[in-house]
Design goal:
Oligomer: single chain
Number of strands: 12
CATH architecture: 3-Layer(aba) Sandwich
Strand content: 15-25%
CATH topology: Rossmann fold
Helix content: 25-40%
């Protein structure tokens, strides 16, 4: 009996040693994956707009005592939209869309600079623990509810901010939102909707991802501040407020934990908007992915790029119609794709768009 116990102990010990050797080898040997030549780059020129009309930054105090910045676009409305920005930047670029929503009286809009981002973050590109950003979002909602106690609350985001909204939906706070608005949401690096390395925007340290994921599975989180992702932002788009790399814990906090489960948690009204010319995602695959797990309106807007869905005016009538219809529909919409021409469907092979994506 003793001999059997010793063999089992030896097997477990050997397996553990091999496991940790693989994990640490991945950490030490992992190199940054460079963009693939020929990938369609994001058009940062679309973000070169006049931001002089953006509201001044305000701050609220998160539960850990940290002041976090946000912008408030006021409106004469009984609705509130909290909109999360995408990776690498901060809330300012959401001004064209947020300003439209507020100026039309559709909703108040709050656009936070997520922790680790913005003009003067505490630690750029890092957070304290993996679930901290959803805790921050819940703290912002508490602030908003004090000023708008009976408002219809919509949580949304663009790109990684959309992924953050999906993560929030699957968290303990998900039912605090009355509806969700996702603009080209990032679901996961290997989700069917995501182009390789998000179209060349992101350069991951694949080995570090693997090694840290293995260590976290064993409860070891002391190395989670290691950089695992860098962004390929052109020099002309930088002004010192960008965030060009993420730690493992911030990157994990910024995307769905399990996008299938998190999407499945959304029972509230959900609008998903994607431009057919998105350089980071396969536009036509969103319907087939999202409709497996939840009910949604999926709108494909022809000709819009990754940044176009927050900058260009073509997106505004779609959002206006949806916001005005919240609370007025008796039944949740059937999961459908609307707004794409037949020509685009027949010729959009690169985007994964097919004729049966139309209604």
């Amino acid at each position: 009996m003793t001999e059997i116990v010793l063999k089992i102990f030896h097997f477990i010990l050997t397996s553990a040693v091999i496991f940790f050797l693989i994990a640490f080898a991945a950490l030490l040997l992992g190199r940054r994956q460079k963009p693939t030549p020929g990938q369609r780059a994001l058009d940062f020129g679309e973000l070169f707009v006049d931001y002089s009309g953006a509201p001044e930054l305000q701050s609220f105090t998160a539960r850990d005592g940290t002041p976090l910045a946000y912008r408030h676009y006021p409106a004469d409305s009984d609705k509130v939209v909290i909109l999360f920005h995408g990776s690498g930047y901060h809330s300012r670029y959401l001004m064209p869309l947020a300003g439209f929503i507020s100026s039309e009286g559709l909703a108040h809009v709050y656009t936070p600079d997520l922790r680790g981002h913005g003009v003067t973050p505490g630690r750029r590109g890092d957070v304290d623990y993996i679930n901290q950003m959803e805790d921050d979002a819940a703290d912002l909602i508490d602030l908003v509810r004090k000023d708008h106690p009976s408002a219809t609350l919509i949580v949304g985001g663009h790109s990684s901010g959309g992924g953050m909204a999906v993560r929030f939906a699957g968290s303990q706070y998900g039912k605090r939102a009355d509806a969700y608005l996702l603009l080209t949401p990032f679901l996961k690096y290997n989700a069917p909707t995501t182009r390789p390395n998000s179209g060349g925007w992101a350069s991951p340290y694949v080995g570090r991802f693997m090694g840290l994921s293995m260590l976290n599975a064993m409860g070891i989180r002391s190395l989670n501040d290691m950089k695992v992702l860098e962004f390929n932002m052109p020099q002309e788009a930088r002004d010192g407020t960008e965030t060009l790399s993420y730690s493992f814990r911030l990157n994990t906090a910024y995307s769905p934990g399990n996008y299938k489960k998190d999407l499945g948690a959304i029972t509230q009204p959900l609008l998903v908007i994607v431009g057919t010319e998105d350089q980071a995602f396969f536009a036509g695959k969103f319907k087939s992915v999202i409709c497996q797990y939840t009910n949604a309106e999926v709108r494909l807007i022809e000709g819009l790029t990754h940044f176009g869905v927050v900058i260009r005016p073509e997106v505004r009538p779609v959002i206006k119609e949806w916001l005005e219809g919240l609370g007025k529909k008796r039944h949740s919409p059937i999961c459908v794709v609307e707004g794409q021409s037949l020509t685009a469907a027949l010729t959009g092979k690169e985007n994964g768009i097919r004729p049966n994506d139309l209604v």
